[in-house]
């Protein structure tokens, strides 16, 4: 009788899935860290432009 990994689950399969999920999470964290400074800089830039417009 051959085992298909059904029933109690295949530990290797779960291990590979866990590695994949961790890799995706790290990738998403890195993307967020790269995007955040850009959005903050853009916000300050528009704030400076707004102040210049108010002075004129």
Count the E strands. Answer: 0
The largest pleated sheet is described as: none
Beta-strand share of residues: under 5%
Total number of helices: 1
Distance between the termini: 84 Å
Decide which structural class fits the backbone.
Answer: mainly alpha
Q: Indicate the overall shape.
A: rod-shaped
Element-by-element helix/strand order: H
Average pLDDT: 68
Report the uncertain regions: none
* Rg, nearest Å: 24 Å
Question: How is the secondary structure organized here?
Answer:
Blueprint (H helix, E strand, L loop, with lengths): L10 H45 L1
Salient structural properties:
about 80% helix, mainly alpha, about 55 residues, 1 helix, single chain
Outline the structure in words:
By secondary structure, the protein is mainly alpha-helical. It is 80% helix and 0% strand. The chain contains one helix and no strands. The protein has one helix spanning 11-55. The termini are far apart.
Give a brief description.
By secondary structure, the protein is mostly helical. About 80% of the residues lie in helices and about 0% in strands.
